[in-house]
Write a structure and sequence with these properties.
It contains eleven helices and no strands. By secondary structure, it is mostly helical. It folds into two domains: 161 residues, Outer membrane efflux proteins (OEP) (Up-down Bundle), CATH 1.20.1600.10; 133 residues. Helix 6 packs antiparallel against helix 11. It starts with a helix and ends in a 10-residue tail after the last helix.
């Protein structure tokens, strides 16, 4: 080996060793305090909050989470590890969210709220995607019944046993069922795409499987008589703003007219934010309870009644007491009732996600100070 080549090799090895050494001593500052903060917040998931870190490859973990039907909790975990928007925010705040800064650092507060918002948005996108796909299944049954009905009507008309008017009425059902199914299929595609984007996926990874139906309703809804107080307590930005206001008040002499006006304005601003948070808490909890009542009503009363009617119609048809068109019409009605129950269940779980987000202290645009 000549001297020039030796020098180049030596320099290359030295540089690599130096970079490796720097990598060993370099640190992102750690985010244990932020993760503990997130773990202390109310959440529908029992899984620990883990998000992307510099220099860490989570591809194996993400691939494992995407195996089998993707649960809501797994979807949230994938988003926290893989969502580009969150990684941009994490990279922007950098060491400000690390353990090198105080627990109440504004960047940590802002980041915890952003993580909560992404978690909620992902959970809601998952709910919309699953319910949309489930709706397609229900409306497919309705269309199948309409197709059978339309085919029978066409044959009866050709045989001269039905009028064109009677056939047209059955044809209307088929056209409406086909239109409803087409809209549902498009809605399901769009809902899934929104979830895919939040998960930060593409290619084969985006072909994950979803459950065939939404989670069952809880036996009882949450009882939160203190929802206003809990919402205010969760909003640490309000608590920090209150402390700053109190400190500012202590420093004021209040001898100048301008200081008096400033003091009134500061106090009013803080009070206005608290009023908005209280109102949002009441409205969010009321929506949660009302959607629960509606969903449980659909599940425990409407669907059993529809099933009973369908069974009776089958018996009457077997006894030649009703026509096949009566049975098919009731089959369509039962499919539409199933569609309505799916929507009611989805709306409850969406309200549940919003409620947990509220209790975790994530502000909405109209309540952000």
């Amino acid at each position: 080996m000549n001297s020039a080549l030796f020098c180049k090799s030596f320099l290359a090895l030295s540089l690599a060793a130096t970079l490796a050494g720097c990598a060993n001593v370099a640190s992102d500052g750690g985010v244990n305090s932020l993760q503990k903060r997130m773990a202390s917040l109310p959440s529908p998931s029992a899984s620990p909050v883990l998000f992307a870190r510099p220099g860490q490859d989570h591809s194996i973990e993400i691939a494992q989470l995407l195996k089998g039907p993707l649960s809501a909790d797994a979807a949230v975990r994938v988003a926290l590890l893989n969502n580009p928007g969150l990684q941009i925010a994490l990279g922007s705040d950098g060491l400000d969210i690390s353990d090198r800064t105080q627990a109440q650092h504004p960047a940590k507060l802002r980041m915890s709220q952003q993580i909560t918002r992404l978690s909620t948005e992902t959970r809601k996108a998952w709910l919309n995607a699953v319910s949309a796909a489930q709706t397609v299944g229900a409306l497919t049954q309705a269309q199948a019944a309409a197709e059978v009905s339309g085919d029978l009507a066409r044959r009866l008309t050709q045989a001269g046993n039905w009028s064109r008017l009677q056939q047209a009425r059955q044809q209307v059902y088929l056209v409406e069922a086909a239109s409803d199914l087409s809209r549902a299929q498009q809605a399901a595609f769009s809902a899934r795409e929104k979830l895919v984007v939040l998960l930060g996926l593409w290619g084969t990874a985006a072909q994950f499987e979803l459950p065939t139906q939404l989670p069952a309703l809880p036996a009882q809804p949450l009882e939160l008589p203190d929802v206003e107080a809990r919402a205010l307590q969760a909003r640490e930005d309000i608590r920090i703003a209150t402390l700053l206001w109190q400190r500012k008040e202590a420093e004021r002499r209040l001898t100048q007219p301008g200081e008096l006006w400033d003091a009134m304005g500061d106090a009013a601003q803080l009070r206005q934010t608290a009023i908005q948070v209280r109102s949002q808490a009441r409205e969010t909890y009321q929506r949660y309870r009302s959607h629960y009542e509606l969903a449980i009503h659909q599940q425990n009363e409407l669907l059993p009644l529809r099933q009973f009617i369908n069974d009776e119609m089958q018996l009457r048809y077997n006894g030649m007491l009703s026509s096949v068109f009566d049975v098919l019409a009731d089959t369509r009605a039962q499919a539409l009732a199933t569609h309505s129950a799916i929507q009611a269940t989805r709306d409850f779980w969406l309200a549940d996600a919003d409620l947990h987000s509220l209790l975790a202290g994530a502000p909405t645009p109209d309540t952000t100070p």
